[in-house]
Input
Amino acid sequence: MPVSPPRPKGPHLNALRAFEAAARLGSFSAAAEELSVTPGAITQHIKTLEAWAETPLFTRNARGVALTPMAEALVPEFTRAFDQLGLAVHALRKQVAPNKIKLATLPSLAQYWLPARLGKLRQIAPDLQVSVIALEEPPNLVREPIDMSLFFTSDPLGPNDIEVLRDRIFPICTPDVAARLTRLEDLRNETLLRDSTWSDDWEHWLSAQTDLGGIASGGTEHSLFAVALEEARHGGGVLMAHEALVQRFLDSGELVRPFAGIVDLPRKLVLHLSPKMVRSDQLAQIRDVLMEIAK
Amino acid sequence: MPVSPPRPKGPHLNALRAFEAAARLGSFSAAAEELSVTPGAITQHIKTLEAWAETPLFTRNARGVALTPMAEALVPEFTRAFDQLGLAVHALRKQVAPNKIKLATLPSLAQYWLPARLGKLRQIAPDLQVSVIALEEPPNLVREPIDMSLFFTSDPLGPNDIEVLRDRIFPICTPDVAARLTRLEDLRNETLLRDSTWSDDWEHWLSAQTDLGGIASGGTEHSLFAVALEEARHGGGVLMAHEALVQRFLDSGELVRPFAGIVDLPRKLVLHLSPKMVRSDQLAQIRDVLMEIAK
DNA sequence: TATTTTGGTGTAGAAAAACTCAACCTAGCT
DNA sequence: AGCTAGGTTGAGTTTTTCTACACCAAAATA
Output
């Protein structure tokens, strides 16, 4: 029974948060992603926590990490704590500014699909202030100060999810380019434009047609759909497009569909609401409005 | 609808913790105390949080602070979150070292009352490793990595509290000094020793005797009971003692009670257990052992 | 078998956050 | 008028947190 050490300090909150994220996601790099830091930062947090607890929490296998059985048992407790904290922060945000809404979505959706809908929304509910955050990956709505997200997913819908539309893809190009294309084989001579987010959509589409291999080989891949689309508009090739994103170019005739085939992917565009939103009465109404304009 | 600001960051965890503590305790300095920092640190945390939320959370009255009505509503959410986090940390500690116990208590109890009890404990349960932390104020057992606390209090007992004994006080001194004391009035010529933690015990005791005012005026106040006791042992005056702390000196005859009067204060010595302890089965047994030896 | 890829580690240095200190302010007391 | 309790402020310092980048090992690929 040693006597009177200095007042013991608890572990650092940030280290606990890093632990929880790493444990929940099963990977340091995923945790790093969620917390917007580098993987090295996570490594260090976990290490300080392990030093504090005087016990290892993860086993490091060169292919990733795995929780210690001991640590495993603790994860739900920490997850509950940080979920509750996230809820509290959401409550604070809503309390302060009930009609400021943050919506996270893909850059391409933010640019080509949302603006028209948000315009409509502004007419229906002029007091709502929606700000749009463009992200490549869906954020964790419990933890981050974001109210809604709009992403493509194939996962089954949860209780806070609303399916907006199904993803339908088909090739598009300028009328000039289309004039050169009569049979699928003609694609061999064209540049196939693709977006890195959906880089195998060409394969999906082609394999749904009378298939003949080898066409989908090369092509130019762009990290932003907007860039690929721009190239298509300048006659730079044939783009595998998503219906939701190119409707207006088809309507205007600027771009056309050289082939009739449309592929319905199992992927859907889903509006996901933060847990805080579905609960609050005031916000349930906002949600209804948004579902309305989402059509 | 502004588009694509950088990914919004949540507030700093430490700022949230400071807010919760300040809100719960109703005072920045109390929060500073609980978190072992200076009041200035709390001020700054609250300010960054207010800047993040873009709204004031406290109204500053020169005599202290008060929560904004808006902030008021949020406190329970944050308290729940940090309570849950504290629980999780306790779970971690117990998981790692189930039989390491941290006990916080007053320096005087740690020095004069505990050692004999802990010795007994070591015989009953040799595998328990109890470490004692001396603190002036009872810690928050939910938040700090401490399992039990032993302090005097007049508050009613909660479900995790165990009354160990009632506080009984009386004057003591060396036999030499006692020889000079036959009537209460004789105290006027002696140095009245007192501990700053319980600085008005002399008044309590005197007013319980055939009261005559003015005796309790001066005296020497020591911040540590141990120092006052040491002075009494060297014949430096008459000390207002607590039964629990001086039993052994009375037994050995080194110190004596110059007057028969004993005052039973409404204050009791209470063993408080962290919420995690009462729940766990394994630790319920430890608790029983401790109650046993507490007698 | 060689090569690449994936996910984690280690360290140095830099940036950001958190803290202390000491002077200062204000309203309520004595 | 002076004192006190509680908070604030700003400068300066310490701690924490992060990044950058080189490195490592197994697994996947070729």
User: Anything to note?
Assistant: Residues 27-29, 39-40, 42-44, 47, 60-65 of chain B lie near DNA strand D (CB under 10 Å from a C1'). The domain at 167-264 of chain B is CATH 3.40.190.10 (D-Maltodextrin-Binding Protein; domain 2). The beta strands of chain B are 58-61, 64-67, 100-105, 129-134, 148-153, 161-172, 192-195, 220-222, 238-242, 263-273. Chain B has three domains: 13-82, 93-165+268-294, 167-264.
